[in-house]
Amino acid sequence: xxxxxxxxxxxxxxxxxxxxxxxxxxxxxxxxxxxxxxxxxxxxxxxxxxxxxxxxxxxxxxxxxxxxxxxxxxxxxxxxxxxxxxxxxxxxxxxxxxxxxxxxxxxxxxxxxxxxxxxxxxxxxxxxxxxxxxxxxxxxxxxxxxxxxxxxxxxxxxxxxxxxxxxxxxxxxxxxxxxxxxxxxxxxxxxxxxxxxxxxxxxxxxxxxxxxxxxxxxxxxxxxxxxxxxxxxxxxxxxxxxxxxxxxxxxxxxxxxxxxxxxxxxxxxxxxxxxxxxxxxxxxxxxxxxxxxxxxxxxxxxxxxxxxxx
Length: 310
Description:
By secondary structure, the chain is α/β, with parallel strands linked by helices. The protein has helices spanning 11-16, 25-34, 48-59, 93-96, 98-112, 122-137, 149-152, 160-175, 224-230, 232-242, 246-257, 271-280, 286-291, 294-299; strands at residues 37-41, 83-87, 140-145, 184-191, 208-209. The longest helix has 16 residues, at 122-137. It is globular, with a radius of gyration of 21 Å. The termini are far apart.
């Protein structure tokens, strides 16, 4: 019986710990073989970081990690690309400032890929890193997770100036990519919000937004069929505990956790809520208690008047 990968965000760790991985590699293969520049928006705790990890380990040619998965026999494992993986969730921009935090991250990446940088400004340093890494190791897979966190963290009235300043830094950072096409194998950017190309990606006009694309509606999250297939060992004890038939249990789970659709057709379960339910065996609002969009709720205006119905 495989383990529930609650809170685990890297593919290699899920596989090493005998965790359940809902195989999305057919869609991953379609993604990387039919395009180059992608943007994907999904809520928190919806599998974005695991998807980025899957792409990272694929381009690093970690064949053993993909043993038994759909893509294993469809990929050329002799080909390896350098990966630059930015996760703004782990950057210390609160203390250092966003520009300095990015600069420090670029320095660490240069050391990891054994190249020396002479630039000091983060924009020039990013250009230099792309040029030198691609020259030494080949075309780069650039993966950016939580791209919008330095903005969303400051979307309060008293910190809006910081949000605007961070937006300008990020716009300058992403502008480097337009002239770096020859050095890049893949660009994949993901976050929880969807800022307009004018406000943030004005220089990156070749970015394909797959947020609502029907071909990738099930790229993150679990379909009804995937829940029934991958988690059947966990469903049977819950059926006995709650006194429900297999059909009734799946119907109750659908009502509680299968409320998401990105293309208006396919519906998916929230992974975090589903995994927590399978572990606790109790129906609760697991996702909302830990992954609700606080920044969005904060933007809802407070009513100025309250009316009481008699």
